C-alpha cells in the first residue's frame, strides 16, 4: 500500500473515502470544508446521544472533494486506549474501502496535538491491510496493490510526520513478515529454512551472523537442540545474529527465541485437535528474527544479539523418549519426563549462548505453555524474571505498542515440583499446577550468573481464531514491536 502525507487543508484534499476519528478528550482533526464539518458534527451528536454505535457513513454529493465519509467514535471501543483505537479504525476504514473499491482514502490527524497518532495510523494501515493468501487461488490484492492512504497532517509537523511514517512503516513491515513466517506450513518453515532466511536478513541489513548445524551444536555441547530434534529428518540449527553499534556499548541485550518449527509433542504426542497450530511454535524465534531485521536498519546504540533455537519435534524411532536424561551446557542434568515440554530444553542452549556472548540482559520469548493461556487468555502474554528493572522495561515497551504483558511470580516453593531422583531437574513439574511459573523456574536454572533476565511466554497471543483489533485471523507477530521498542529506547532515561 502506498502511504502519503498531506499538509494541505481538508478542502484541498481529494479522496474516494475520507476518515475522521472522534474522541471525547482530544480533537484529532481540523475541517475547513463546511459540508464535511456538518456531517462530522451530526456524527458526533449521534455518538453522544447513543443513536449511533459502530460508525457514521455517508455518501457525499457530486462535486465534493470526497465521494464518501466515515466517522468513528473512540469511546465505542472500551477495551483499549486511543492509540490502539486509532489503529483499529484505520484498519476498519481500509477494509471498508476494499469492500466499496475506494482506491484513495484520506484520514485526518491534522489537529495541533495529533502528531503522535500519525505513527499509529501507519501501523494500523500496514498491519490492517495484511492478508495471508499465498495458497489461495482467488486473491484480493486491492489494498496491497491499488489502494492509497493519504494521512492529512498539521502543516507544522512535517519533519516529525516523515520520521514517524518511516519508523512505523518499517517496524510494521517486519511484524507482517514475522506473521508470514508463522502462518507458513511447517513443511515449508524448517530449521534449515529459518537459518537460511536469517542469513539473507543478516546480509540485507548488515548484521553479523553465525549458524550452527548439528555438528557445530555437538562440538559446542548444545545438547537440548540435538535431543529435541533427533526424531525429525529436519535437523536442528542455532542461529546467532549480532547488531554491533558504532560506539562501544556497556550493555549487551540477548534476545533468545524458541523456534520449534512444528511441535507434534514427540512421543508424548499432542491431541490431534488444532495440532496444525503448532506450525506456529516458532513464533518466538520469528519475533527475534524480525526484531533483528528491524534494528539492523534502525541501528540503536546498544549491542543486541539475536539467538534462534530451531528444531522440529517429531516422534520417530530416533526421537527422545520419556525418561531419557541428558546434560545441558551448564552441567545440569535433565530428565525428559514429557517430550512435549521441549521448548524449555532448546532454550537452555540459547541461554547458555547468551552468556557466552557476554549478555548483560537476556529476554527469551517463547510459545512455552498452555498454562499461560489458561491463566491469561489469548490477548495477554506472561512475563517472569529475575530483574525488576528489565521486567518493567518490557512491560512498558509493550504498552507503547499495544502488546500486553502480565507479570507472574517465580515462586521458589514450587521448585520442589521439578525435583526427580534421577537427575538434577525434571523437565516438567509434578502435579501439573502453575505450569507457566514452573516453566520459568526451570529456565531460571540455566540463566547465566549476573545477567538480568526476563522470560516472555507468548503462547496466548501467538494466533487469533478471528479478526481482532487491526489484525486478521491468524498469526499476530506478537513481540516484535515490544522488543524493537526495548532495544530502541534502552539508553533513554526513565
Key structural traits:
single chain, about 500 residues, alpha/beta, Leucine Aminopeptidase, subunit E, domain 1, Aminopeptidase, 8-stranded mixed beta sheet, about 20% strand, elongated
Task: Output mean pLDDT.
Answer: 97
Distance between the termini: 36 Å
Strand order of the largest sheet: 7-8-10-9-13-17-14-15
Number of helices: 14
Any idea of the CATH class of the largest domain? Alpha Beta
Q: Segments where pLDDT lies below 50 for 5+ residues?
A: none
- CATH homologous superfamily placement of the largest domain: Zn peptidases
- Largest sheet report: 8 strands, mixed
Beta-strand content estimate: 15-25%
Give helix % range. 25-40%
User: What is the number of domains?
Assistant: 2
Q: Within the CATH hierarchy, at the fold level, what is the topology of the largest domain?
A: Aminopeptidase
Q: Architecture of the largest domain, CATH level 2?
A: 3-Layer(aba) Sandwich
Radius of gyration: 24 Å
Q: What structural class do you assign from the helix and strand content?
A: alpha/beta
Specify the overall morphology. elongated
Number of strands: 19
Amino acid at each position: 500500500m502506498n502511504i502519503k502525507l498531506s499538509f494541505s487543508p481538508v478542502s484541498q484534499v481529494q479522496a474516494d473515502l475520507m476518515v475522521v476519528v472522534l474522541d471525547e478528550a482530544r480533537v484529532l482533526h481540523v475541517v475547513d470544508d463546511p459540508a464535511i464539518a456538518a456531517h462530522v458534527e451530526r456524527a458526533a451528536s449521534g455518538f453522544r446521544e447513543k443513536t449511533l454505535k459502530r460508525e457514521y457513513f455517508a455518501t457525499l454529493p457530486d462535486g465534493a472533494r470526497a465521494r464518501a465519509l466515515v466517522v468513528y467514535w473512540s469511546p465505542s471501543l472500551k477495551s483499549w486506549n486511543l492509540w490502539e483505537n486509532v489503529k483499529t479504525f484505520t484498519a476498519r476504514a481500509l477494509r471498508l474501502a476494499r469492500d466499496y473499491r475506494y482506491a484513495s482514502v484520506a484520514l485526518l490527524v491534522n489537529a495541533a496535538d495529533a502528531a503522535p497518532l500519525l505513527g499509529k495510523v501507519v501501523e494500523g494501515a500496514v498491519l490492517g491491510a495484511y492478508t495471508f493468501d499465498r495458497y489461495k487461488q482467488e486473491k484480493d490484492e486491492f489494498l496491497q496493490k491499488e489502494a492509497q492512504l493519504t494521512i492529512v497532517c498539521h502543516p507544522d509537523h512535517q519533519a516529525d510526520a516523515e520520521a514517524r511514517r518511516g519508523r512505523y512503516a518499517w517496524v510494521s513491515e517486519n511484524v507482517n513478515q514475522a506473521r508470514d513466517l508463522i502462518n507458513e506450513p511447517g513443511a515449508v518453515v524448517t530449521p534449515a529454512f529459518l537459518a537460511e532466511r536469517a542469513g539473507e536478513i543478516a546480509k540485507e541489513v548488515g548484521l553479523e551472523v553465525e549458524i550452527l548445524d548439528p555438528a557445530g551444536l555437538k562440538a559446542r555441547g548444545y545438547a537440548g537442540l540435538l535431543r529435541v530434534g533427533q526424531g525429525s529428518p529436519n535437523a536442528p540449527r542455532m542461529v546467532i545474529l549480532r547488531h554491533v553499534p558504532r560506539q562501544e556499548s556497556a550493555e549487551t541485550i540477548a534476545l533468545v527465541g524458541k523456534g520449534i518449527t512444528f511441535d507434534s509433542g514427540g512421543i508424548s504426542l499432542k491431541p490431534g485437535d488444532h495440532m496444525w497450530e503448532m506450525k506456529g511454535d516458532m513464533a518466538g524465534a520469528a519475533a527475534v528474527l524480525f526484531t533483528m531485521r528491524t534494528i539492523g536498519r534502525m541501528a540503536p546504540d546498544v549491542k543486541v544479539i539475536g539467538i534462534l533455537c530451531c528444531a522440529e519435534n517429531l516422534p520417530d524411532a530416533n526421537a527422545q523418549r520419556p525418561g531419557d536424561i541428558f546434560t545441558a551446557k551448564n552441567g545440569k542434568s535433565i530428565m525428559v519426563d514429557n517430550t512435549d515440554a521441549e521448548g524449555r530444553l532448546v532454550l537452555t542452549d540459547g541461554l547458555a549462548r547468551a552468556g557466552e556472548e557476554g549478555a548483560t540482559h537476556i529476554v527469551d520469548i517463547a510459545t512455552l505453555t498452555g498454562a499461560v493461556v489458561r491463566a491469561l487468555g489469548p490477548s495477554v502474554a506472561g512475563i517472569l524474571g529475575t530483574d525488576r528493572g528489565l521486567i518493567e522495561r518490557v512491560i512498558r515497551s509493550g504498552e507503547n505498542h499495544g502488546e500486553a504483558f502480565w507479570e507472574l511470580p517465580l515462586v521458589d516453593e514450587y521448585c520442589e515440583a521439578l525435583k526427580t531422583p534421577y537427575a538434577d531437574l525434571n523437565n516438567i513439574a509434578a502435579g501439573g499446577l502453575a505450569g507457566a511459573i514452573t516453566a520459568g523456574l526451570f529456565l531460571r536454572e540455566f540463566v547465566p550468573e549476573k545477567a538480568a533476565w526476563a522470560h516472555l511466554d507468548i503462547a496466548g497471543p501467538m494466533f487469533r481464531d478471528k479478526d481482532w483489533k487491526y489484525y486478521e485471523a491468524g498469526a499476530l507477530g506478537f513481540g516484535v514491536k515490544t522488543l524493537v521498542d526495548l532495544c530502541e529506547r534502552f539508553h533513554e532515561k526513565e
